[in-house]
Fold this protein.
Amino acid sequence: MLTIGLKDIIAAADVQVAGSLDSEIEFRWIERNSRSIVAGDLFIAVRGERFDGHSFIADAAARGATAALVARSWAVDSATGSPIPLLIADDPVVVLQQVAAARRDALEMTVIGITGSIGKTSTKEVVAAVVGQRFATYRSPGNMNSELGLPLSLLEVEPGTEVAVLEMGGAYAFGELALLAEIAKPKYAIVTNIHPVHLERMGSIEAIAETKAELVLAIPEDGAAILNGDDPRARAMCSLCRGRVVTYGLNADNDVWADRVETDGLRGSSFRLHLGGENYHLKVPLVGGHAVELALAAIAVGHAMGMHVSEMVPGFSSPGIQVRLLLIDGPNGSRIIDDTYNASAPSVLSALGLLHQLGAGRKIAVLGDMRELGSVMEEQHRLVGRRAAEVVDHLITFGELAKIIAEEAQSASRESGGRPLTVTSFGLNERDEIVSYLLEQLREGDIALLKGSRGLEMEDFVVALQRACELKTDGDR
């Protein structure tokens, strides 16, 4: 991990030092979570919706922080008696961004920025694996895509890196993506899709598209926008790019497109690729309904950067590219599809499609609320409910919104007169009950999908089920 020097911070931003600090000091890292502080860190006090980081300066000091980066408005009344030296600025987050921008300017590298409503992190992983076949490549960790996460990612980039693949959010307000682009200076922009995710915050899907377009507008003349041409709102951004535009998708009017798509469950997907007047038959170890989209996005980027298909293909074998969806052992001989990271209607439908393809055992779907959908909330939940009725044997819902999924699934099942469907619903205050119920219900041969919005923390259910498996195994020894 690279260090951050006090001199670098002072050179990049307007900060005042209060307390005794050696001008040559190097901070191990800039850390915003006091519980994650390691000796030698600079603690940045961030004011959020729920917590004010300034309240945790003493905790950060106790854990070994060398100093704290604080807001001037707080320091006026509270700096006296601080247990550690302070760096005082109007806005600590702006200082972080300025330091990251200075670090980025010092690095001779190409930045690929990725945005969209869903699939950003998966796209980032696949793109990095593909372009990494030619270039020394960095990818931002996890979903570090915010006004805090992106600068911290840039501070991780080692000298000698040729390409940085960065996820960029920008779903909450106009100007967010423009700011991130100003810090990172991307040469290439990828827009995966535009869906009604975070609709409650932005008000309309047109507003969401406008925020995502800020990344395309930031691309220089010698750069390129790589757009999902099958998504009309992403395709509409073609006219906004000052550089080259490369579209990808399943329609033949795209620059990079695929047909003859076949999915083979967990073994991956195959398709015929059309690129530059040539056809290629490819098989990639990516699973889920968006597997081919992921592959096409990565191929489109590699093509824009001058790579040949034969050079890109080995990147699809990277073990780290299937980052979202995991198939793990469950209780009593069952298997669990852990896709708990987040949920929107397209991603849930994709996961249900995979569940439908897997094995001959009983199919169980544990589906939670899909949040921040605004005016299309009920419509999107009913859409998922209708598909669930076609795919699953036992539907379990978690949360008040998810009860709409249950209602629609039951209604669709009755109307079709088809396969029997069991439906069970749990409220948000019944976390322990849903785990107990799953432990009772899951049996040999079952495949259970778990998926819901990030705020539901449904990964806790997966941990509890895995723990039950471990205890059972230990007890059998």
Observations:
- The longest strand covers residues 256-263.
- The chain has 17 helices and 22 strands.
- The domain at 326-476 is CATH 3.90.190.20 (Protein-Tyrosine Phosphatase; Chain A).
